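queue> pop job 88
queue> type: inverse folding (structure -> sequence)
queue> payload:
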C-alpha cells in the first residue's frame, strides 16, 4: 500500500480525444504488450472530460481517471514507475538494483520488467482506486511553467486536479524473474520518497511511503515467484473508506518550480 506524503497531481489529459491520441500512438509505436486492447478502451472510457454541469474542462488541464465513480490510477502507470526507479537506481553504487543479476545485461532489465513484473489493482487488473477519507475533495492546483526558448523565457499556466497528502493506493505486484530480488523491489518502492507519481513529481509532489508484505512461492519449473497479497490494507489494518470526490476548489502551490 502506498501512502502519499505530498499531494498527488493528476497527469491524465481531461480531453478524451487528446488522451486517445496520446495512448494510441504510444500503444502502436512501443507495442506495449502489458496494455491490452480491452484496457486501452477502458482507459479512454475512464477519462472524465466534462464537469458536473456538462461543460468542457479547461483546455490543457490534467486530472485523474475515474473508474466506477472513483479517482483511480491505471496499473500500467505503476509499472512505469518501477521502470523509472530502476533506471535511476541502476547507476547508484551499492544498491541491489545496480549489483548482481539486476545489472547484468545492461538495459535488458527494462525489458525484463515489461515481461516479468505485473501490477494489478486490488479487485481487477486495470485500475487502482485512490483511497481517501470521507468528505475529501478533489481540488485544482494551478502553477506556472517556465521554459527558456530562442525568443527568451516563456511562462505558461498549468492546471491539474489534486488529491491531498494521506491519499492511499493499494495494488498487487507479481514478479516472475529471480533477478528481481525482494531487496531490489523494496529499493524501487523506496525511490518513491524522492520521485513519486503524477504531475510535477520532480518537485516532490506525489512522493509516497509504502507498506509491503511479500509472499514468495515456487512455480512448477522451480522459478521463485514474489507476490503481494490482494488485501494489503487488511494485513496492516489500514483499510480506509473510499469516497466519491466532491466539487473542486482552487489551490496554488507555495513554490514556483519547473514541472517535469
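queue> result:
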Amino acid at each position: 500500500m502506498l501512502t502519499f506524503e505530498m499531494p498527488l497531481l493528476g497527469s491524465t489529459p481531461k480531453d478524451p480525444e487528446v488522451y486517445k491520441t496520446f495512448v494510441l500512438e504510444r500503444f502502436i509505436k512501443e507495442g506495449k504488450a502489458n496494455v491490452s486492447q480491452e484496457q486501452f478502451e477502458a482507459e479512454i472510457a475512464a477519462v472524465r472530460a466534462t464537469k458536473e454541469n456538462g461543460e468542457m474542462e479547461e483546455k490543457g488541464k490534467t486530472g485523474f481517471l475515474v473508474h466506477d465513480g472513483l479517482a483511480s490510477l491505471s496499473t500500467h502507470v505503476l509499472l512505469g514507475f518501477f521502470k523509472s526507479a530502476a533506471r535511476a537506481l541502476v547507476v547508484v553504487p551499492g544498491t541491489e538494483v545496480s549489483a548482481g543479476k539486476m545489472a547484468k545485461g545492461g538495459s535488458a532489465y527494462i525489458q525484463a520488467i515489461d515481461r516479468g513484473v505485473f501490477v494489478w489493482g486490488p479487485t481487477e487488473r486495470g485500475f487502482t482506486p485512490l483511497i481517501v477519507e470521507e468528505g475529501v475533495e478533489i481540488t485544482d492546483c494551478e502553477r506556472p511553467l517556465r521554459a527558456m526558448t530562442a525568443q527568451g523565457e516563456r511562462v505558461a499556466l498549468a492546471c491539474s486536479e489534486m488529491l491531498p497528502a494521506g491519499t492511499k493506493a493499494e495494488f498487487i505486484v507479481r514478479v516472475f524473474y529471480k533477478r528481481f530480488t525482494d531487496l531490489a523491489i523494496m529499493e524501487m518502492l523506496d525511490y518513491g520518497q524522492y520521485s513519486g507519481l503524477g504531475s510535477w513529481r520532480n518537485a516532490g509532489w506525489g512522493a509516497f511511503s509504502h507498506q509491503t508484505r511479500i509472499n514468495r512461492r515456487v512455480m512448477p519449473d522451480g522459478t521463485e515467484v514474489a507476490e503481494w497479497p490482494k488485501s494489503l490494507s487488511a494485513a496492516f489494518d489500514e483499510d480506509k473508506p473510499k469516497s466519491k470526490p466532491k466539487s473542486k476548489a482552487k489551490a496554488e502551490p507555495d513554490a514556483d518550480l519547473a514541472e517535469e
